[in-house]
Amino acid sequence: MKAVRYHRYGDSDVLVHEEAERPVPGAGQVLVRVAATSFNPVDASIRAGFLREAFPLAFPHTPGIDVAGTVAATGPGAGGWREGDAVVAFLPLNGPGAAAEYVLAPTEALAAAPTAVEPADAAALPAVGLTAWQSLFEHARLSDGQRILINGASGAVGGYAVQLAHRAGARVTATASPGKAERIRARGADRVLDYTAAPLTEAADGPYDVVLNLVRTSPEETGDLVGLARDGGVLVSTTTEVPEDAGRGVRTSHVFARSDADQLAGLVRRVDAGELRIDVADRRPLADLAAVHADAEAGRLPGKTVLLAG
Q1: 3-state class of 68 per DSSP?
Q2: Cβ pair 40, 79 in contact under 8 A
């Protein structure tokens, strides 16, 4: 089979589209024929070796933590999954990934794929959708009627976070560039702040019960975000770690998303019910993965990009 792999840590040019042996499922695994995977920033961090202590790799390594496809074969104890089932999953970060024609997936990570979207587009859901869900409802404990500021709402996680927060009954303020403001409003934001026009501390209508930070911030910017949370509120960040503000009782939390099949199944149900939209900015062939990594590092990706295996 064809796969994109790298044989050492390095820049995007270590990614090679090459022949690889088709894997065989073992106990508790299924073999998935990949329709698509997607690019996530953590893929680049792992490839560069920045996370080698937390997530050591065995080389050659195939990246791609998101997968959408169909079950091609099952190992013993496959948990009821059968050949031909359409599935999605958030795969282990340092296991063999889905940038290949076939990938092994642990059965405990699998959820039935949504039926309301193209099979390949479902690869844009698992990692970022779960990041948004866990940020809002596990870490922030967002509830109906609360006010939330989502900083970085135009990114892949932000698009899901806006929709989920709106559906939960929260009043959503979001930051976005002018060109993306209408899309964010259409996803459920009550107010969109143009972060290019004025400092957030001037434009924001806080304080907020919850501040969700999805972009890398300087220490000064991080302090400003803490200041936008109400006394006793919460700041959740998927990027910069934030110290608590004990004097005002502002709780802070740093998110590193985990695979959760039950939560993923819940997101799929929302997609099929028309309550959650999957946004795909670009679809490219798997052989373009090295170029996608390079584009991401140069800030040229238009948004969530899926890589088509077939």
Answers
A1: strand
A2: no
Task: List the one residue out of 191, 195, 197 whose CA is nearest residue 214.
Answer: 195
pLDDT beneath 70: ranges in the chain: none
Tell me how far CA of residue 14 lies from CA of 56, 259, 290, 293, 294, in angstroms.
Answer: 17, 27, 8, 11, 11
Whether 97 and 103 have beta carbons less than 8 Å apart is answered as yes
Beta bridge partners of 88: 68, 111
CB atoms within 10 A of CB 221: 16
List the helix and strand counts (H, then E) for the chain.
8, 15
Whether pTM exceeds 0.90: yes
DSSP code string of 86-147: EEEEE--TTS--SSBSEEEEEGGGEEEPPSSS-GGGGGGSHHHHHHHHIIIIIIS---TT-E
Classify residue 77 by its DSSP letter.
Answer: S
pLDDT of residue 240: 87
Rounded CA-CA distance 156/246 in Å is 31
Directed axis angle between helix 126-133 and helix 261-272, to 10°?
100
Task: Please give the single-letter amino acid code of residue 33.
Answer: R
Which 3 state secondary structure label does DSSP give 148? strand
Over residues 276-297, the pLDDT tens digits come to: 999 999 999 999 999 999 999 9
Omega of the bond leading into 60 within 30 degrees of 0 (cis): yes
Predicted local distance difference test score (pLDDT) of residue 247 = 84
